[in-house]
Specification:
The chain folds into two domains: 205 residues, Alpha-Beta Complex (Quinone Oxidoreductase, Chain A, domain 1), CATH 3.90.180; 127 residues, Medium-chain alcohol dehydrogenases, catalytic domain (Quinone Oxidoreductase, Chain A, domain 1, Alpha-Beta Complex), CATH 3.90.180. By secondary structure, the chain is of the alpha/beta class. The strands form four sheets. Strands 3, 5, 6, 9, 10, 17 and 18 form a seven-stranded mixed β-sheet that branches. Strands 13-12-11-14-15-16 form a six-stranded parallel β-sheet, sandwiched between helices. The chain has a three-stranded antiparallel β-sheet with strand order 2-1-4, with no helix packed on it. Helix content is 25%, strand content 24%. The two termini are 26 Å apart. It has eleven helices and 18 strands. Helix 4 packs across helix 5 and helix 4 crosses helix 10.
């Protein structure tokens, strides 16, 4: 089998498509034939060798990338039983934890002290076969294709945490999502709209703005969103502000994000792609009775709930492009340049086809 791995840290030249040994399942494992694997910003950070709070580096090189993936179970360990069977279409929960602490027992996996993402310290899902504990996969709804499912785990579980679990978005609220082209941002807008909120977004690109305005769940786009865009948002609300801001950009946008919040509004933070040391006024937070909420990747409960929701609804991931595994460097370039609106997905060439659903 083959997979996309980094052989060092740096630019896209560090990514190689390598022949890899096939995994052998442990007693409680399943082996998934991965059909599609979606890219995330984590892939870029791991390849670049980023260090800092909450960032984990691979334990050894070469290191297979990939947080997200979906495919078909092709083997099971002796102790798996009938809960998951060969032939089941599944998505992989992209996190591991101790499984025994108070947070893990409550399904709050990302609060565990031993929490880590697949593809960070341990090898990831951008390989054709992947062994994983059976407890870490969810069987897909019949209506959800493997392609769509591969785009869900990191982005939509995070968005579910942001909008539902932590953000508690309510019908009729105004929700502003900063930087509207990314996977988490798109997912958050979809879920907020489905919750009955009015959805606004920002982007620095006029081309992206045009594409975002075509999406049925986006009510308004502010572009170009250079620093100081808070004035335009406040003008659009007659000075009232918005109820919720979802910000995964970080340092460059926090000041504007705080300023557009109505009294009692919530800034829900789920990333820091633009930097993690913002220049803000603390008084603008507490004197406006505004709230700051952290919402990293969610736990097993959020992962399970978002797949159940997708099975009941017509909401589907927005997929920008699908590339063969051999073009993984092109995928990295596109994501690094922020060209995409939605998810970039790799086809691992295992023969499932782009629209494959359960027969």
């Amino acid at each position: 089998m083959i997979g996309a791995a980094i052989t060092g840290h740096g630019g896209v030249e560090q990514i190689q498509v390598l022949s890899l040994p096939e995994p052998v399942p442990g007693p409680s494992d399943v082996v998934v034939q991965v059909a599609y694997a979606a890219l995330n910003r984590a892939d870029l950070l791991i390849r670049q060798g980023l260090t800092g709070p909450g960032v984990r580096r691979p334990r050894q090189l070469p290191h297979v990338l990939g947080v997200d993936g979906a495919g078909t179970v092709v083997a099971t360990g002796a102790q798996v039983g009938d809960a998951i069977r060969v032939g089941d279409r599944v998505a992989v929960f992209p996190a591991s934890s101790c499984e025994v602490c108070q947070y893990c027992r409550r399904g709050l996996t990302s609060s565990c002290a031993q929490y880590t993402l697949i593809g960070e310290e341990e090898p990831g899902l951008q390989q054709q076969l992947f062994a994983v504990p059976a407890r870490s996969v969810v069987r897909l709804p019949d209506s959800l294709s493997l392609l769509d499912a591969a785009a869900v785990p990191a982005a939509y579980t995070t968005a579910w945490t942001v909008v539902v679990t932590t953000g508690a978005v309510r019908p009729g609220e105004r929700v502003l999502v900063v930087g509207g082209g990314g996977g988490v941002a798109i997912a958050a807008m979809q879920l907020a709209a489905h919750s009955g909120a009015q959805v606004w977004t920002t982007t620095r690109s006029e081309e992206k703005a045009a594409r975002l305005r075509e999406l049925p769940f986006v009510d308004r786009v502010f572009s170009p969103a250079a620093p100081g865009w808070s004035a335009a948002v406040l003008d659009a609300t007659d000075g009232e502000g918005v109820d919720v801001v979802v910000d995964s950009v970080g340092a460059p946008t926090w000041r504007d994000s705080i300023r557009v919040l109505a009294p009692g509004g919530r800034l829900v933070v789920c990333g820091a792609t633009g930097g993690d040391v913002p220049d803000i006024s603390i008084r603008e937070l507490y004197q406006g009775n505004r709230r700051l909420l952290g919402a990293p990747f969610g736990g097993w409960n959020d992962f399970r709930d978002v797949f159940a929701f997708l099975g009941r609804s017509e909401v589907r991931p927005v997929i920008d492009r699908v590339l063969p595994l051999e073009r993984v460097r092109d995928a990295h370039r596109a994501l690094e340049a922020q060209e995409q609106v939605g998810k970039i997905v790799l086809d691992l060439g295992t023969g499932s086809g782009p629209g494959h659903t359960a027969s």
